[in-house]
Amino acid sequence: MAVVAVLDPIADSAMALLRRHVEVLPPPAASWPERADGIVVRASPVGAAAILTASRLRVIGKHGVGTDNIDLEAVAQRQVVVAKTPAANADAVAELAIGFMLALLRRVAWHDRGIRIQASSAAPPVGRELKGARLGLLGFGAIGQRVARIARMGFEAEVAAYDPFVQPPRDLQVRMLDSASALCAQSDILSVHLPLTSETRGLVGARLLSALPQGAFVVNTGRGGVVEEVALLAALRGGRLAGAGLDVFEQEPPTAELALLEHPNVVTTPHIGASTREAMERMGRSVVEQVLDVLGVEWRREEERHA
Ligand code: NAD
Fold this sequence. Notes:
Blueprint: E1 3-6, H1 12-19, E2 23-25, H2 32-35, E3 38-41, H3 48-53, E4 59-62, H4 72-76, E5 81-83, H5 90-105, H6 108-116, E6 134-138, H7 142-155, E7 158-162, E8 174-176, H8 180-185, E9 189-192, H9 206-211, E10 216-220, H10 229-237, E11 241-246, E12 266-268, H11 277-294, H12 300-306
Parallel strand pairs: 1-2, 1-3, 3-4, 4-5, 6-7, 6-9, 7-8, 9-10, 10-11, 11-12
Helix pairs in contact: 1-11, 5-7
The structure holds nicotinamide-adenine-dinucleotide.
């Protein structure tokens, strides 16, 4: 019987499906390199040493889309398939990105803190609306496009994007710009939806941030390393940025000393973009099905028989 190691918790239904067809090493499955034919991983690091010594390994199932926690160079040296779950979490992450935008525009966290400590403000800050705001999407894949759809059709925002690798769907009225700096120059809100690669690491740094209009907001639900935290803090302190919404950090979890966490105009969540019940079910099911398929496990007919 094939052995599949599950390195991080996944939806119960996905775990049950896996257990019906293979031997499962449950999280954290630290001994996986010795025994596993396949692994399922969310954010745990899968390093070169483990990949190169795991002689039985044939498939790495990535629960999600960002593969920056997997050493792909080591994977390339082996006959190992990496299976991802594209789009399964797009709704969840897009909704969080929109949530950050609304929280920043209306200063929800700031007011929440004020009300709790009974702080009176003679002139409470006036909010802004997403309707009519210029939203710039850096990265226009599954999540960027979902954000565009919600912002355009639900809120009537003006949406532009930079992504040289995709054609926008016809029905979405989105202006595609030809550089990240052109996008920043025209964005009241910059929302980052890029993977972390050698090209995107530190892309949103001092240069791009200074291209944003005065009083702009930055939302990052992509990957922490894409936005330079030192430059972001400087832009907030200098007043160019009115606020930032961050689900992801250069180091996760961020340390308590991270000065960004102290800034009153920063709203954060601890990398929970894809953590909804619905997305966890979709990602879990999709990753398990793909791992079983790569391992050649005949699971579909048996599942139908028991349905
Ligand atoms: P996707 O692959 O569908 O889209 C990524 C897009 O980025 C692609 O269209 C690609 O062409 C574009 N891109 C890559 N390099 C670029 C560059 N240098 N300049 C401009 N565009 C570039 O992925 P997705 O599902 O939309 O997810 C986007 C990212 O969001 C993921 O890679 C992941 O890092 C992150 N993510 C975060 C969470 C979370 O919990 N916060 C959850 C899921 C995904």
